[in-house]
Design brief:
Largest sheet: 7 strands, parallel
Radius of gyration: 24 Å
Number of strands: 19
Distance between the termini: 57 Å
Shape: globular
Length: 398
């Protein structure tokens, strides 16, 4: 058979995948008349676009409701994204808490990233591999739920899987899934595991759903929770901005994990970055404030003027990036102020901008950086928010 163009080959691969439910690299190579290297490149391209999931020697359809990969295989897929999500989630855990940790490759990465200085943490999990990972953590006590073993995921399920879960009240639950949809909520491919997830959600004060970008706008077989039953979704920077907007419009808070290797202070999520660039604006790019319209150019000029008081030679590229991408947050430097003496106000600034917008991890390090900037600006009772953000981002980005 003569070699086909990439587009035609990939269409043929998807058609075969739809009819057979799985494909093998060697068989596709012979059928399409191309090398195995070319087939693997086609499969990689189709996986990046979310149309299939690669496995060892082949591929499966990406629809989460139809197939479930063994844990050791699912961990290899989108590993960088899952690692980033895991680190973001791990940064939310505090000493002294009781947490539920669900089975899955992304929750496994969260456990790997848990800080070693955590103390008096109680982890209740239905994942045997996670229990073993935590066995050597001196500050963590582990309770395994019991139940019936599912070897494919190293998980414990019903019968008897939910009995112990119902005896706990957790501060936080970290849940994996196969789909997150604005209408159908959080869903999972396996019915038995979905029952355990539902029990954890019901007994947790705060629930975080950990899902990479390929699971957004998808629906699997079994319902786990509606969106109003969970607190937030943690996903990666490849999340489609439109999908994120739809989920947020449905009432779900979306937290984006900084990409691995990104500088902490500049690791704004690609989704949040894209949304900020595409906010509805008129032809003059006017930003509305309560007092009067302000253009980006005017805002940049005012911000530079305010910052030069603290930094005679400011990083103008950094200021321009902050104004361009976060202008709606920064507002005008002469009217948008922050009080370092008000813990509630600082907490709001930290949550809404530093964590949610910039994607920084909450914790003692961030608190120390905030206090350092407050100390630097202590001569002013009310601090310009634009200057506050600039100094903090510049300091953390060093």
């Amino acid at each position: 058979m003569p070699s086909l163009s990439a587009k035609l080959r990939q269409r043929a691969i998807l058609e075969r995948l739809e009819s057979q439910g799985a494909v093998r690299v060697t068989e596709l190579s012979a059928e399409l008349g191309v090398s195995t290297v070319t087939v693997r490149a086609d499969l990689a391209a189709l996986e990046r676009s979310g149309q299939l999931v690669r496995t060892r020697g082949g591929a499966l359809p990406s629809g989460p409701g139809r197939f479930e990969l063994p844990l050791h295989e699912s961990r290899r897929i989108h590993l960088k994204e899952k690692t980033a999500i895991g680190r973001r989630a791990a940064g939310l855990i505090r000493s002294g808490e009781t947490i539920f940790v669900d089975v899955g490759s992304t929750t496994t990465e969260m456990v790997r990233a848990m800080p070693h200085d955590l103390e008096d943490l109680l982890v209740v999990t239905n994942a045997l591999n996670i229990a073993l990972l935590l066995a050597g953590h001196a500050g963590v006590r582990v309770v395994v739920t019991g139940g019936t073993l599912r070897a494919q995921q190293h998980s414990l399920v019903n019968p008897f899987g939910t009995l112990l879960v119902q005896e706990f009240y957790a501060d936080r639950a970290f849940i994996g899934c196969n789909g997150v949809h604005p209408r159908y909520g959080v869903t999972n491919a396996n019915v038995a595991e979905a029952e355990i997830k539902r029990a954890m959600v019901a007994r947790a004060q705060t629930t975080y759903v950990l899902a990479d970008h390929t699971k957004l706008m998808r629906t699997a077989t079994a319902k786990v929770a509606t969106l109003d039953e969970v607190s937030a979704l943690i996903t990666d920077t490849d999340a489609d901005p439109e999908a994120v907007s739809l989920l947020e419009a449905a009432g779900l808070e979306v937290l984006t994990a900084p990409a691995l290797g990104a500088k902490p202070a500049l690791a704004a999520s690609r989704a949040a970055f894209s949304r900020s660039l595409h906010e509805p604006r008129n032809s003059k790019d006017i930003l509305r404030t309560k007092r009067k319209p302000v253009t980006n150019a005017e805002l940049l000029s005012k911000t530079l003027e305010a910052i030069r008081k603290y930094d005679p030679k400011p990083d103008e590229a950094l200021i321009a990036a902050l104004v361009k991408n976060y202008a709606l947050v920064m507002r005008r430097p002469d009217t948008a102020l922050v009080s370092c003496s008000d813990p509630k106000e600082l907490a709001t600034v930290k949550k809404n901008f530093l964590i949610k917008k910039l994607g920084l991890q909450d914790g003692p390090g961030l608190d120390a950086a905030v206090q350092k900037v407050c100390e630097r600006m202590k001569a002013e009772r009310r601090k310009s928010r634009a200057v506050f953000y600039y100094l903090l981002v510049k300091d953390l980005g060093r």
